[in-house]
């Protein structure tokens, strides 16, 4: 079905005679090259390709807005040079969940080291 919609290179053989790690690594590299070639040769990836990869469809990114900025400059600068495959709506490291069960050990360690240096092991 993909060959009907987009240009695709020859896909590596899916029949692997043995499970030798070297052979499996060659198959993985072949599949990686196949996917990279499909993405590079096709400007827009159709829904069927994203479904094939089991990738959720990404909404278009909102344009940045600024007072007194030329709209045509904004339009050109806000375009991506590639089609996003995965989009985080919230940075999990900068904005962790408020109800996170795991404490932030880095921050706790820094605070402990600054405010309780006498409790550090020697």
From TrEMBL:
GO cellular component: cytoplasmic vesicle membrane
Molecular function, one GO term: phosphatidylinositol phosphate binding
Membrane recorded as keyword: yes
UniProt topology in membrane: Peripheral membrane protein
Top-level taxonomic group: Eukaryota
Gene3D superfamilies: Phox-like domain
Domain PX residues, every copy: 7-55
Record localization: Cytoplasmic vesicle membrane
A GO BP entry: protein transport
Keywords: Cytoplasmic vesicle, Lipid-binding, Membrane, Protein transport, Transport
InterPro entries the record matches: PX_dom, PX_dom_sf, Sorting_nexin_PX-domain
SUPFAM superfamilies: PX domain (SSF64268)
PANTHER family in the record: SORTING NEXIN-22 AND 24 (PTHR15813), SORTING NEXIN-24 (PTHR15813:SF10)
Family assignment from sequence similarity: Belongs to the sorting nexin family.
UniProt protein name: SNX24 protein
Source species of the chain: Odontophorus gujanensis
């Amino acid at each position: 079905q993909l060959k009907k919609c987009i240009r695709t290179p020859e896909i590596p053989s899916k029949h692997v005679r043995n499970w030798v790690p070297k052979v499996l690594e060659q198959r993985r590299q072949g599949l990686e090259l196949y996917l990279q070639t499909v993405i590079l040769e096709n400007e827009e990836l159709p829904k069927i390709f994203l479904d094939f990869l089991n990738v959720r469809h990404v909404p278009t990114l909102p344009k940045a807005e600024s007072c007194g900025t030329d709209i045509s400059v904004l339009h050109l600068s806000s375009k991506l040079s590639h089609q996003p495959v995965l989009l985080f709506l919230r940075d999990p490291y900068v904005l962790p969940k408020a109800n996170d069960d795991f404490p932030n050990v880095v921050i706790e360690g820094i605070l402990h080291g600054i405010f309780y240096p006498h409790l550090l092991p020697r």
